[in-house]
Amino acid sequence: MSYSQIKELIPAGKGTLNYWLRNYPLTDEQKAKLYERKDIWIENFRETMRKKREERWRMVYEIQKKRIGRLSKRDLFLIGAGLYWGEGQKGGSSLSVSNTDPDVIKFWLLWLEKCCGVKRRDRKVSIYTHFYSDMDIDKEIEFWRKTLKVERSQFAKSYIKQSKRTDLDQKSFGHGTCRIQVANVKIKQEVMATIKLISELDP
Predict the structure, then answer these.
(1) The CATH number of the domain where 181 resides is what?
(2) Residues 139, 53 within the same domain
(3) Could you give the C-alpha distances from 155 to 38, 73, 99, 201, in angstroms and in order?
(4) pLDDT per residue as tens digits for the range 81-121
């Protein structure tokens, strides 16, 4: 038995067990069995902790879902302005957001449709992609096309960096970087004015 198993039966500390059992070393076969059981215990422990994390996440998700409720168009507009503040291109007359996370780009297109009346397949919506030389370019463009539900004709020529994705320390570039650009001076001014108003809030 391991010390943990013994301690379940006998209320003794590890130091005491070490002293009591110092003259009773385990054989190699006994050690192998203990290590085997330890590996199983570790795996079971990891699975238990994973389930606990998932359960905590579900609880928090449901609480926040009730707390936030249905988002209004105003809510969505402010969220989009916040996204643009962090990820958008500030200069020029076009709106442009780039990211490696497909969910961020999906939300950006949803925001353009819901808050600004820009259709995702509008010819003014241009899509730029940034890939690495060891990526399957056609496959990745098709991934973005299907994910965003846009036309292939909206994609500009991809920028291919000669370095390899496999050389990166962090692998967030699973499908490269996608940038959505919309030529609309009016919307750009509204977004930048909203960002300015938010930045002027008193603490």
Answers:
(1) 3.30.1330
(2) no
(3) 53, 29, 15, 38
(4) 999 999 999 998 899 999 999 999 999 999 999 999 999 99
